[in-house]
């Protein structure tokens, strides 16, 4: 295997980990949706989302990656989490 093939293999391994973590995040979101339903809480929690965005911004800087990239990725994940939680309602 040459260098680029090894690097591409590493990318695939990282992608698989990311997908597994996204699946785990969705499972947890489903449980949160169940909790919110049981306790008559709204799906949308703007205060919590603001805290998440602040956390994601800090982590992106900490890891030296684009805050815009991280924001875009997590906007999608949060949107999907809301969908999962609404389904639980």
Account of the 3D structure:
The chain has 89 residues and is mainly alpha-helical. It has a single domain (3-88), classed as Chorismate Mutase Domain, subunit A (Up-down Bundle). Helices cover 84% and strands 0% of the residues. It has 3 helices and no strands. It starts with a helix and ends with a helix. The mean pLDDT is 95.
Present the secondary structure layout.
Blueprint lengths: L2 H36 L7 H17 L4 H22 L1
Helix pairs in contact: 1-3, 2-3
Short description:
The chain is mainly alpha-helical.
- CATH T-level topology: Chorismate Mutase Domain, subunit A
Summing up helix and strand content along with how strands pair, one would put the structural category as: mainly alpha
Count of folded domains: 1
Helix content: over 70%
Broad shape: flat
Sheet with most strands = none
CATH C-level label: Mainly Alpha
Count every beta strand, where a strand is a DSSP E run of 2 or more residues: 0
How much is the average pLDDT? 95
Query: What Rg is obtained from the alpha carbons, in whole angstroms?
Result: 16 Å
Return residue spans where pLDDT drops below 50 for at least 5 consecutive residues.
Answer: none
Q: Architecture, CATH level 2?
A: Up-down Bundle
Instruction: List SSEs in N-to-C order.
Output: HHH
β-sheet strand percentage:
under 5%
State the end-to-end distance.
50 Å
CATH superfamily: Chorismate mutase
Please report the number of helical segments. Answer: 3
């Amino acid at each position: 295997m040459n260098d680029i093939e090894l690097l591409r293999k590493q990318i695939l391994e990282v992608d698989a980990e990311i997908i597994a973590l996204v699946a785990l995040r969705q499972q947890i979101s489903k449980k949160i949706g169940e909790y919110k339903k049981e306790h008559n809480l709204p799906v949308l929690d703007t205060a919590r989302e603001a805290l998440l965005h602040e956390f994601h911004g800090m982590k992106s800087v900490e890891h030296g990656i684009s805050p815009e990239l991280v924001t875009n990725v997590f906007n999608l994940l949060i949107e999907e989490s809301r969908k999962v939680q609404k389904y639980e309602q």
